[in-house]
Automatic annotation (TrEMBL):
Database matches in Pfam families: Chorismate_synt (PF01264)
Encoding gene, per UniProt annotation: aroC
Lineage: Bacteria, Bacillati, Bacillota, Bacilli, Bacillales
Organism of this sequence: Neobacillus thermocopriae
Manner of cofactor binding, per the entry note: Reduced FMN (FMNH(2)).
Pathway: Metabolic intermediate biosynthesis; chorismate biosynthesis; chorismate from D-erythrose 4-phosphate and phosphoenolpyruvate: step 7/7
Function, in words: This reaction introduces a second double bond into the aromatic ring system.
Stated name of the protein: Chorismate synthase
Length: 390
């Protein structure tokens, strides 16, 4: 499967086209809207989220509630567009209009794509860069992921996430919680954590950052249960599923690193304390006695829960100015902005869930391909049976 997205942050709409879903899969706009709403929540977002009420329009590939096997096209309108029709207009500007267009950006923000993007594409107005590099784009990545998540749910695969750290405040992560318990707790937490004590301290850290005109980052964890064993491959670098997931996580705006299971902690432990012992029982087949490797060995799923963590740096658009250089005058200046999020880690957890869902659905469709959804499901169930008895 593949998908592309298009759209500028303050342009008329965001668009995505998804290709490769089998025909006959049930799909409703509300499956997607649920994820879009989840992404918009979260303590620490700025004023833009009060303007947008993201809802999807399915404009191709679905008829009477089922996928057709043709490309699926999704559109999310930007409510903020009405304030930007002149600045972000599609048509060429008249001679006298050029000076009128405000919000030309010649001052790159440290940590953003602004300066490098301007150098690469030759944009003297860095708005041409920031409009597309904005994390607004994650809206349609979530929409695409929501369709993938629907596919996963129909074959018994569940995806959840939790925020495990914000601005240096660590949550106590309880691995005895079921996936449904994690979902319940995080849906009711403004910072999407399962630890009520850390929740208060995380919110305080966000308040402090906001008061200081600063921003803070954090760590999100995605947990997936129900993936059959043996998905992905060890035979080539570009078929390793954990590698694809790592790329998907780091491709989310502001994400800088990724870990599976105990992750970087593996560097500090001997092999006997890292690797998960293998066992078998009649009911469930092979399993691991622990899950330190987070569901992957050799680029393939083990059938154990997948556990991935991603680290998000603090958002670089700061009220507190950092020094930079104006590209017109080459003079130093201290950057100031009009609006920003002080923390988007809770929203990023939802984005992470959905980009992970895409990669997993993609891997399943790759491996158990059928043009018809019904036979695709049968193939996956056969694989589960086969792996159990193997
Ligand atoms: C973003 C800047 C802010 C965020 C935006 C991402 O937007 P604006 O410049 O309009 O204030 O609100 O996030 C979203 C709009 C969103 O939907 O998540 C940026 O520069 O990355």
């Amino acid at each position: 499967m593949r998908y592309l997205t298009a759209g500028e942050s303050h342009g008329p709409q965001l668009t995505t086209i998804l290709e490769g879903f089998p025909a006959g899969m049930p799909l409703l706009a509300e499956d997607i809207n649920e994820e879009l709403t989840r992404r918009q929540k979260g303590y620490g977002r700025g004023r833009r989220m009060q303007i947008e009420k993201d809802t999807v329009e399915i404009v191709a590939g679905v008829r009477h509630g089922y996928t057709l096997g043709s490309p699926i096209a999704l559109v999310v309108k930007n409510n903020d567009w009405k304030h930007w029709t002149k600045i972000m207009g599609i048509e060429p500007l008249g001679q006298d209009e050029e000076n009128e267009v405000k919000r030309k950006v010649s001052r790159p923000r440290p940590g953003h794509a602004d300066l490098n993007g301007a150098i690469k594409y030759g944009h003297r107005d860095m708005r041409n860069v920031l409009e597309r590099s904005s994390a607004r784009e994650t809206t349609v990545r979530v929409a695409a992921g929501a369709v993938a998540k629907k596919l996963l749910s129909l074959v018994g695969i569940k995806v959840a996430s939790q925020v495990v750290e914000i601005g240096g405040v660590k949550a106590r992560v309880d691995y005895s919680l079921t996936l449904d318990e994690i979902k319940d707790r995080t849906e009711n937490s403004p910072v999407r954590t399962t630890d009520p004590d850390a929740e208060k301290r995380m919110m305080k850290a966000i308040d402090d950052a906001k008061e200081n005109g600063d921003s803070i980052g954090g760590i999100v964890e995605v947990i997936v249960t129900g993936m059959p064993a043996g998905v992905g491959s060890y035979v080539h670098y570009d078929r390793k599923l954990d590698a694809k997931l790592a790329a998907a996580i780091v491709s989310i705006n502001a994400f800088k690193g990724v870990e599976f299971g105990i992750g970087f902690e593996a560097a500090r432990k001997p092999g006997s304390e890292v690797h998960d012992e293998i066992a078998w029982e009649k009911e469930s087949g092979y399993y691991r006695k622990s899950n330190q490797l987070g569901g992957f060995e050799g680029g393939m799923t083990t059938g154990m829960p997948i556990i991935i963590r991603g680290v998000m740096k603090p958002i670089p658009t700061l009220y507190k100015p950092l020094m930079s250089v104006d590209i017109e005058t080459k003079e130093p200046f201290s950057a100031s902005i009009e609006r920003s999020d002080s923390c988007a880690v809770p929203a990023a957890a939802v984005v992470a869930e959905n980009v992970v869902a895409w990669e997993l659905a993609n891997a399943l469709v790759d491996q158990f391909y059928s043009d018809r959804f019904e036979t695709f499901v049968e193939e996956i169930n056969k694989q589960r049976e086969y792996a159990r008895e193997f």
